[in-house]
C-alpha cells in the first residue's frame, strides 16, 4: 500500500490529464476543483466545482473557425478565465496546470493571474511533458507534490509494462505508413508523444513531429506520403463530431487515391487517448496496435476508443 503523508491537502486541477493522474493515484477525495474540460473519471468530476471558462464556444464553430481562434490564442490573447473568487473560496494548497500549450488548457500564466488575490502562495505544478516517459514521470511529480510518501511505483510500473508488451509484440511486424491527423480543417499533423505511440504500436508516422508541436501541413504533402492507415484524432473533438465533419477531409484533392482510403483503413480515434498527457495514453497505444495489426492484437476495440469511418463517410462503424 502507498503511504500518504499530505493529510488535508486541497488540490485544484486545471488540466484534464492532471485530473486523471490525481484519480489514478487514489487522491480524488483531495480534489476540490477542476477545469471545465476535466471530464474523466465521470463519477469524480461530476461532483466538483469548475473554476474556468473559455472565451469561445467550440460547439457553435466550424473547425476552421476554431483554428483561427486558437491562432489568436497563440499570439498572446488567453482563451481562458479562472474564477479568482471561487479559487479563493476553495483554498487550494496545490494547483496543477500546464505550460505546453496556451490554447489547449489553462496555462500557468492564467493561474498566476488568478492567485494574486489569495493572500497566500499555493504550490503551482506545471506539467509539460512531450514524450511518454515524461508523461509517466509526471505521475511521480504529482504524487510527491501532493505529499505521498514512496509514491506510485506499482502504478507506473504497470503502465510501463503494458507499453513494453506492445513494443515486444509489434517489434517484428510490418510497419505501415500512418498519418495521424490532429486537425481536419486545415490539416495538421500530430506531435509530441503521438509519433512515439505509433512506433510502439508497430507503425510509422513520418509526417508527425516527435516531442514537438503539431503543425499545419499542405495536403499535397500528405498525398505524396501516401499513408496506408489514416487516424483522425482532432484535439478536443468527440468521436461523433469527427464523423459529422468527415466531409471536410473526404472532399480534399485526391482523397480517393489514398491507399488508406482504398483499403478502408480510415479511423476516428478518441482524442482523449492521444491528446491528453495522462495515463490513458497507454490505452491509446494499445488501440493503435489493434488498428495497425489486428491479426496480432486481436482484442476488440471498445467503441468509445476508436471506430472505422464507413466507406461512404457517413457514419462511424464498430471496429471489426
Task: Offer a concise description of the structure.
The protein is an alpha/beta fold and 320 residues long. Helix content is 35%, strand content 16%. It has helices at residues 16-24, 42-45, 63-74, 84-90, 108-114, 132-145, 153-170, 194-200, 219-225, 239-244, 247-250, 259-262, 281-292; strands at 3-4, 11-13, 31-34, 52-54, 80-82, 94-97, 123-126, 148-149, 178-183, 188-189, 191-192, 209-210, 229-232, 266-269, 306-309, 316-317.
Shape: globular
Total beta strands:
16
Q: Main beta sheet, described? A: 6 strands, mixed
Give the amount of beta strand, in percent: 15-25%
End-to-end gap: 40 Å
Name the average pLDDT. 88
| Strand order, largest beta sheet | 10-9-13-14-15-16
| Share of residues in helices | 25-40%
| Oligomer category | single chain
Tally of alpha and pi helices: 13
Please write the string of helix (H) and strand (E) elements: EEHEHEHEHEHEHEHEEEHEHEHHHEHEE
Low-confidence stretches: none
Summing up helix and strand content along with how strands pair, one would put the structural category as alpha/beta
Whole-angstrom Rg: 20 Å
Walk me through the topology:
Blueprint: E1 3-4, E2 11-13, H1 16-24, E3 31-34, H2 42-45, E4 52-54, H3 63-74, E5 80-82, H4 84-90, E6 94-97, H5 108-114, E7 123-126, H6 132-145, E8 148-149, H7 153-170, E9 178-183, E10 188-189, E11 191-192, H8 194-200, E12 209-210, H9 219-225, E13 229-232, H10 239-244, H11 247-250, H12 259-262, E14 266-269, H13 281-292, E15 306-309, E16 316-317
Helix pairs in contact: 6-7, 7-13
Amino acid at each position: 500500500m502507498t503511504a500518504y503523508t499530505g493529510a488535508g491537502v486541497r488540490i485544484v486541477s486545471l488540466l484534464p490529464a492532471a485530473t486523471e493522474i490525481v484519480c489514478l493515484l487514489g487522491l480524488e477525495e483531495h480534489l476540490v476543483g477542476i477545469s471545465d474540460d476535466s471530464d474523466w473519471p465521470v463519477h469524480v468530476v461530476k461532483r466538483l466545482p469548475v473554476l474556468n471558462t473559455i472565451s469561445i464556444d467550440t460547439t457553435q464553430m466550424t473547425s476552421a473557425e476554431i483554428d483561427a481562434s486558437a491562432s489568436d490564442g497563440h499570439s498572446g490573447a488567453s482563451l481562458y478565465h479562472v474564477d479568482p473568487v471561487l479559487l479563493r473560496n476553495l483554498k487550494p494548497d496545490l494547483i496543477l496546470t500546464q505550460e505546453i500549450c496556451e490554447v489547449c488548457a489553462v496555462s500557468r500564466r492564467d493561474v498566476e493571474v488568478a492567485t494574486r488575490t489569495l493572500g497566500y502562495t499555493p504550490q503551482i505544478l506545471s506539467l509539460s511533458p512531450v514524450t511518454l516517459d515524461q508523461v509517466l514521470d509526471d505521475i511521480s511529480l504529482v504524487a510527491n507534490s501532493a505529499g505521498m510518501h514512496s509514491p506510485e511505483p506499482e502504478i507506473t510500473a504497470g503502465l510501463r509494462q503494458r507499453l513494453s508488451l506492445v513494443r515486444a509484440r509489434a517489434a517484428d511486424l510490418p510497419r505501415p505508413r500512418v498519418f495521424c491527423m490532429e486537425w481536419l480543417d486545415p490539416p495538421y499533423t500530430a506531435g509530441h508523444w503521438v509519433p512515439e505511440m505509433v512506433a510502439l504500436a508497430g507503425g510509422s508516422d513520418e509526417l508527425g513531429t516527435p516531442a514537438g508541436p503539431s503543425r499545419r501541413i499542405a495536403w499535397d504533402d500528405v498525398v505524396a506520403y501516401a499513408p496506408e492507415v489514416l487516424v483522425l484524432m482532432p484535439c478536443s473533438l468527440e468521436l461523433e463530431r469527427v464523423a459529422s465533419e468527415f466531409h471536410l477531409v473526404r472532399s480534399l484533392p485526391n482523397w480517393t487515391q489514398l491507399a488508406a482510403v482504398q483499403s478502408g483503413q480510415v479511423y476516428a480515434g478518441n482524442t482523449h487517448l492521444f491528446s491528453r498527457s495522462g495515463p490513458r495514453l497507454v490505452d491509446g497505444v494499445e488501440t493503435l496496435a489493434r488498428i495497425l495489426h489486428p491479426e496480432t492484437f486481436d482484442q476488440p476495440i471498445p467503441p468509445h476508443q476508436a471506430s472505422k469511418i464507413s466507406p461512404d463517410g457517413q457514419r462511424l462503424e464498430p471496429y471489426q
